Structure formats: C-alpha cells, structure tokens
Amino acid sequence: MKHLLITLALIAASLPLSAQEGLRINEVFEGNIINELAMQESLVKGESLEPFKLKVLHTVKFTTGNSPRDKVEALFEEDMKGRLSDNNDNLELEYRDGHLYYAIVQIADTKKGRHRYICYQCRQAAMGGNSITLVYMEGKASLADLRKTFKKK
Length: 153
What we know:
alpha+beta; about 35% strand; globular; 6 strands; 4 helices
C-alpha cells in the first residue's frame, strides 16, 4: 500500500510537466532556466476552465535580467517553428526593440480536437529587469475564443 501511494504521488507530481511535453519552453516550466523559487507558478485543470473551453492553464511569472530573457525568448521562438500554420488566425506576435514582447501561438498537435497554445509577454519590471509571463493552454478553444477571454493589455 505504501508503495502504491508513493507511485501515485510521483505520477501526480509529474502531471504539470507532461502538459508541455515536446516543447522547448518546458525547460522554463521545469525550473531549468529560472530557479523554481524565483517563479510564481499557477496550474489550473478541470471544470473551472470549462467556460473558457480549456482543460489546462499553466502559468509561470518571473523577473530576470537580459541573458535569461534571451534564453527564454529563444526557446519560445523554437517552439513557434512548430506552430499550426502561418495563418494569422493561429498566431499573434509583437516585437519591441528587437525582442519578443507579446505572443500567442497555436502549436500543431497530432491529437484530434486538442488545441495547444503557448503565450509569452515580456515587460520592463518596475525595479529593473524583465517581467516575463509564460503560459501554456490546452483545450478546444480557438485563438478567437482566447482573444475574447484574455484581452491583450
């Protein structure tokens, strides 16, 4: 019984990581680029997301210098290469001063009916540095649905 509980606990602990499976930005969510203690993390799954046509909403937010920002931005841009298409209905990008500022990208997926999105926003932090928010979403929502739900600020 004790072994079963330990096994279930390990499986439950790995669930947040499996959502971003196959994506380079998973390194950020796992704490390999930014120390996990320096990040604010939120993971929401299940019924509370149904009104938004989502099953998973995983967010990390942190403030960092330019070098880590560049690493996160590069990983995000690598994942953008796997986007659904170049169609503007599946992609929203904004660059400022030569760096990615804001993005919502629908990632291609092999499971029918599952839509995956990665989102990125980088702003100047009040105390200096870069305030970065990275989001992974999964569900049946279209990008148009997400635009209605999460207005760009």
